[in-house]
Amino acid sequence: MSMHPFPPADGQPSRPPGPQGPLPGQANPTWMGHVDPQYYRPAPGNAAGPVNAGQGHPLVPPQMRSAAGSTIGTPSPGLLALTIGGGVLAFLSLFLVVPFLLANTGTGGFLVGFVASLVPLSAVLLAVYVIDRWEPEPKRLLLFAFTWGAAVSIAVTLLVQPFFALAFQFADEADFRTYMATIQAPVVEEFAKSLGLLLLLLMARKHFDGPVDGVVFAFTIAGGFAFTENILYFGRAIAESASPASDLAQIFLLRGVMSPFAHAIFTGTTGLIMGFAARRWHSGASVAAFFIGLLPAMFLHNRWNSMGQGFLVEYILVQVPIFVLAIIGIILLRVAENRLTRQRLLEYAAAGWFTPSEVAMLATPGGRRSALNWAGSYNRRPQMKAFVKAATQLAFTRQRILSGRDVQLHQAEERQQLHNILALRAAVAG
Question: What is the DSSP string of 87-125?
Fold first, then answer.
């Protein structure tokens, strides 16, 4: 059966770009990913000739066809060090974290708390998947982020918080508890969590190059931290309460249903600010963004922990709007990222690598869904999904080149990705 290589994008014009392609003045379609004109350069041309709308796969060498879906590149020394070092730190942290949890919850409380904590954790990780679906971060980095939050940041908190307890003496225990909840917890916990973000930015900068990446890593770290903290709170409800079932239900409602994203939103503000700093790569700027980003995270954490007798009113009037604003902010980030992806792919289309209708398909959520459904009717959904992801990654590689970051390294990666695009196109077209 003869197949058109890609489905038409509904309602999208198929006008080709101008004879010289997008001009430098068009290189900044959104506020995100601004490109300085001095760094702008045309996309490399397709030596095999422009891709035509009716073409199945243009001049793909056999060895390139077998490369479809392959992983490009090898881990950098920084990424390898981050993975190994993070694993060692997480393992060592367990020797402090696990005994602490067991001492406070008992074995039964620990097991119940562990299972119950999987529910809010699943909600956070689902959000990470949705946000990061089309340009996913390496699994090893997401694993680092999760283990940092679940183990290392907890260990750092346990080691540092006694110094806060000794720094001030309170005659009233209620004042001491208020101090620990509203001052110590926001300062120490947000610092401990965000330290993992700083390591990611400094040692895996290739994969941390924008606000969306910052939010993804921050949500993953915060999800891990909240997971361990929930084990403690849920387990205590079992171990210390005279009516464990009702107390567990009450705490689960508060932490697992009403606020599963609390820590994610706190730390997400730090990740957002650090992500913007990553657009203009500079070590000093990244460290400065780390400290600046801690301020809103600590403030939001403080406001959450400061809610007292008027909890329900403040939750409805303050915390729910903050959550809604977070959702709107993430949607705006994704819209801006889609527009940036479209612009970068249009530049490759001008160089002959894509058709304009393919760009419309690859750079919009609706176009991607239509493409996957269309490919599924020919039993080629996995191949189409790989093609869409590869094109998205290619667009972000070009963004790194145009931002002036490690240009030669990313240009070499760009060449490999372009060859892979041809192979993936062949796999989809059959």
Answer: HHHHHHHHHHHHHHHHHHHHHHHHHHHHHHHHHHHHHHH
